[in-house]
């Protein structure tokens, strides 16, 4: 599971870096953003965002349900199934209520992520990557690692193409993001070991 998550980060980073080396000047430059703000184009991207976000959510839920249910018994009673689904729904409600939580703070630091077109492309890339990992094998993985990998590859490509003078600042920000992800991984492993210890 950990190896798949690390591989997910690496593949996401490389794929996003290559993709945004090609897309940056056309879709992420200040001139292209100003051009995109025309009403007709914004309507098109609004529809595209709905579809890309819906696809992303479907893939994200598949992965995260696997992450949760892998620790539950192979056969669940109706009570256990309803309870676990209700718990997941409460977690989702909290995420919506907190407007993305801490991960949204990381997203907001990145270039143009508040822009509808940029958000649509990120959602589509993330959804396709999760779909790929779902088809590779059934081992659960950390979706957060894949997401941070996409943001990192994207941000370096944008900085390299549009603002080379800020590359050092970009590297520092991405190292900070990576440290947060590793801290989350450490806490997750610790909790898993504690659960096994309590079972024993």
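Sequence proposed for the structure above (200 residues):
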């Amino acid at each position: 599971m950990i190896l798949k998550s690390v591989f997910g980060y690496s593949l996401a980073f490389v794929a996003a870096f290559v993709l945004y080396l090609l897309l940056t000047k056309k879709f992420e430059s200040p001139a292209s953003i100003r051009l995109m703000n025309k009403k007709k184009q914004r309507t098109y991207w609004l529809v595209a965002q709905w579809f890309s976000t819906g696809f992303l959510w479907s893939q994200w839920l598949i992965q995260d349900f696997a992450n949760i249910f892998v620790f539950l018994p192979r056969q669940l009673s109706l009570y256990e199934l309803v309870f676990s689904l209700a718990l997941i729904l409460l977690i989702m409600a909290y995420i919506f209520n907190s407007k993305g939580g801490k991960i949204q703070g990381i997203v907001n630091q990145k270039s143009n992520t508040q822009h509808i077109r940029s958000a649509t492309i990120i959602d589509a890339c993330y959804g396709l990557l999760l779909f790929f990992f779902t088809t590779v094998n059934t081992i659960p993985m950390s979706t957060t690692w894949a997401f941070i990998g996409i943001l990192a590859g994207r941000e370096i490509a944008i900085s390299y193409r549009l603002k080379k003078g800020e590359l050092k600042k970009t590297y520092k920000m991405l190292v900070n993001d990576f440290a947060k992800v590793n801290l989350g991984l450490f806490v997750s492993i610790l909790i898993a070991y504690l659960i096994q210890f309590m079972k024993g």
